[in-house]
Amino acid sequence: MPEIERKFLLDILPDALHRYPCREIVQGYIQADETTEIRLRKHGDKHLLTMKIGQGLMRQEAEIVLSPHLFNKLWPLTQGRRLQKVRYDIEQADLVWEVDVYQKEMTGLKVVEVEFASEEEAESFPAPEWFGREVTRDERYKNKNLALYGIPED
Hints:
Layout: E1 2-9, E2 22-32, E3 36-43, E4 46-53, E5 58-65, H1 68-74, E6 82-92, E7 95-102, E8 110-116, H2 119-124, H3 143-149
Antiparallel strand pairs: 1-5, 1-8, 2-3, 2-6, 3-4, 4-5, 6-7, 7-8
C-alpha cells in the first residue's frame, strides 16, 4: 500500500498540544539504505515490523504485528540505529497531523507529518504557516537517517 505524506519542521509547537492524544514511540532500524528500510517500532502495547520501499512523496509500505517476545529478540539488531519520540495526533477535517517531538539525543527536533489519500491531495494541501519549512524531500530528515546520523546541521 503506498504511503503519501509531507513533512515539515516546527519552530514552535501548537497551543494546547498536551490536550491531544499522544503516545511514546521507540523505533530502531534493522536495515536502512537509500530506498529500503526495515524498522521495529513499539508504542504502548503494539510491537511492529515495518518495511518501506521507495523515496520522496510516495513509498510502498507493509507492516506486520509482532509479539513482544519476537520484538525483543529482534531489537538488538537495531543497536546504534534508534530514536525515541512522542507523537501527538491532531485531527483536522479529514486529515491527521502527526506532531513528533523527539527525545534523548534529538531533543529540540520537532516535526509534523500529514498523510494523504492521493498525490493530488498532497500537492494541493495548504500547509498552515506554523508548520515551518517543508522537508518532505530532504533525506536528512527521514527517520532512518535521523536514527543513523542524528539531527542535521543546516
